[in-house]
Specification:
It contains ten helices and 14 strands. It is an alpha/beta fold. It has two domains: 201 residues, NAD(P)-binding Rossmann-like Domain (Rossmann fold, 3-Layer(aba) Sandwich), CATH 3.40.50.720; 101 residues, Alpha-Beta Complex (UDP-galactose 4-epimerase, domain 1). β1, α1 and β2 form a beta-alpha-beta unit. The longest helix is centred in the N-terminal third of the chain and has 21 residues. It is globular and about 55 Å long.
Amino acid sequence: MAILVTGGAGYIGSHMTYALIDRGEEVVVLDNLSTGSRSLVCKDATFIEGDVGDHALVRRIAEAYRIESVIHFAGSVVVPESVAIPLAYYANNAMASRSLIEASVESGVEHFIFSSTAAVYGATQTGKVAENAIRDPISPYGRSKLVIEWMLQDTSRAYPEFRHMALRYFNVAGADPAGRTGQSTPRATHLIKRACQVALGRVPHLDIFGTDYPTPDGTGVRDFIHVVDLVSAHVLALQALRAGARSACYNCGYGIGISVRQVVSELEKIVGRALPVKECGRRPGDGATVVADPAQIEAGLHWRAEHGELREIIASALEWERTLEA
């Protein structure tokens, strides 16, 4: 039996693939390489170039490799872009995922782990957000992900043999400590990735979008999670489903709010100099504060953070960035 990792040539998917291979799992990666890189795929995984929305292709893969579980990362993830081209996000996220879910059910896949997002909560208030908080996304990206969660919930009810877990990511950063993979998209919009590019002189300055939020220093506050800790949550979710756990949804974050200015300050300490920054207006779709309440994943999956220090997250991202061509 094998595991299908969609988007396995991307940032988080490539880390997941390495983690599964390290555990002795048989892994098939499906990626159309629109944003991913073939070089990030572990050589011990089977790679297939194609779209997750290709129903016939997914059926062939599931049957040829006896796919037991699907871990679904493929999708579009840039919030401001989703505001500008919403229909593309509904097509690439919701519609493609609907086809993937249907093909999985038809092929007898038992477990489905979905890469969801804290964006499903929308404009949260101060304090930590629990899984039962109101879901009121303010961007097409967040809405498209919430639609997929609903599809999975309804499908799991209709087909009891098909169980899922939706993991709502907060802000993912960092890189593989062994240096095998990391965030490689040149035009990535992730704060820590962009800040590292600025520190290495590859980008002239760091844009800070919004300095008038109702936060201690006026900049957005986020819950940053190391990609290695995020991947460990997926491993635990897979183990739980294999052990018969019910379908569930979990936040993936540390419960620690860190502002944009705090990230910049920590990176400046690491590199020993000030970063050039440019203060800009708020971006559409961004909220002021988004911080997880991780109590449910800690209790339900016995998940514990092992790489939660901001300095470690930034340092690993910077080290990976140094390995990339300018």
